[in-house]
Design brief:
341 residues; alpha+beta; Deoxyribonuclease I, Chain A; 2 domains; 7-stranded mixed beta sheet; 8 helices; 14 strands; 28% helix
């Protein structure tokens, strides 16, 4: 009898532990992402853009407003966040549409600033959308002083009306651990349909997996399927976290770029959709360093890309760099001026 009681107690203890763990997970996680997320378009007081036949687009990984040095800011050092954000705002202010990767919203490490709203107001954008990668109260394996609640993701800023938008979540690997699926960044694909004059431009904001080549290739395939569903003129731009297949150097300390098929895979599938590549191989190989985007102080590789549909003409394009830009983030921004056919 006593043995049965002990067994019952053991069972009750296990049940209690499971309930407690479930409660903690529910407390720490704000929600499990669904397959498609539509959030309201943010609107600011800036004037709406006037289309004169040409659009300036920019893609920029802003490194959470922490500058080149990854200086996650504690409360007493908040001025540094605003210095970096002000520099980013100055860099993007002349663009009509900007895709931002790695933007924080009201978290400790970036001095509780809503970076999306701050940049939209400071740089004169009327519309903005945001997609979460992480929206968690606490990451148990990270420094709570620096991170505490973490809400970060990417955004599209526009001076023209955003008529429709969505966030499409890349599937996580089936063999990923429980902790990876619950706590690790959820890579997403964000797009916006933007009304420009009498045309609609679909803009994709891309940020692919940084740690796993296999996951990154799979995400490139999913991205091409998302793009295939669009009949509008489109531009796909962002941080692909992958090298050009034609890159002369692929062996970087702490990175695994060797035999990475991400760009080759997306290039092959995008060509079937009639998409073109900004700075294609024949142009890139003539002067590689001209197109490097990372790391910003002394760039030695290209991680950021732009693809566009055939009903778009490229007026001009370049990777931007000067002393201020080199310090504002760990990536360099890519600017492209386009017109419609």
């Amino acid at each position: 009898m006593r043995g049965k009681r002990c067994q019952l107690v053991d069972v009750l203890v296990v049940v209690f532990i499971l309930i407690a763990v479930g409660a903690l997970v529910t407390f720490f996680i704000t929600g499990v992402p669904t397959q498609t997320v539509d959030a309201p378009v943010m609107q600011f007081s800036a004037d709406e853009g006037i289309f004169d036949g040409q659009l300036t687009l920019m893609s920029y990984n802003i490194h959470y407003g922490s500058g080149y040095t990854n200086a996650y800011i504690k409360d007493a050092e908040g001025d540094a966040v605003f210095r970096y954000l002000n520099d980013v705002a100055d860099i993007i202010k002349d663009a009509d549409i900007v895709t931002l990767q790695e933007a924080d919203r009201s978290v400790r490490r970036s001095h509780f600033e809503d970076e999306v709203g701050y940049l939209a107001r400071k740089a004169g954008f009327r519309y903005a959308i945001f997609s979460d990668n992480w929206n968690i109260r606490l990451l148990p394996f990270m420094d709570p002083i620096k991170f505490s609640r973490l809400r970060t993701g990417h955004a599209i800023l526009s001076k023209f009306p955003i008529k429709h938008h969505a966030t499409l979540l890349f599937t996580k690997p089936e063999d990923a651990s429980f902790w990876h699926k619950w706590f690790f960044v959820w890579r997403t694909q964000q797009f916006a349909d933007i009304k420009v004059g009498d045309r609609v431009l679909r803009v994709f904001n891309v940020h692919l997996e940084s740690e796993s080549k296999a996951d990154r290739v799979d995400q490139a395939k999913q991205l091409s399927l998302f793009a295939a569903a669009s009949d509008e003129p489109m531009v796909l731009m962002g941080d692909f976290n992958a090298l050009m297949p034609e890159a002369s150097k692929k062996d970087f300390s702490g990175e695994d770029y060797l035999d990475d098929a991400t760009i080759a895979t997306f290039r092959e599938m995008s060509q079937e959709l009639g998409l073109r590549e900004l700075f294609p191989p024949q142009q890139y190989t003539k002067d590689e360093s001209r197109y490097f985007t990372f790391p910003s102080r002394e760039p030695d590789r290209r991680l950021d890309y732009v693809f566009y549909s055939q009903d778009i003409d490229i007026v001009s394009a370049k990777v931007l760099s000067d002393d201020k830009i080199k310090e504002a983030s760990d990536h360099l921004p890519t600017r492209v001026d386009i017109s419609f056919r």
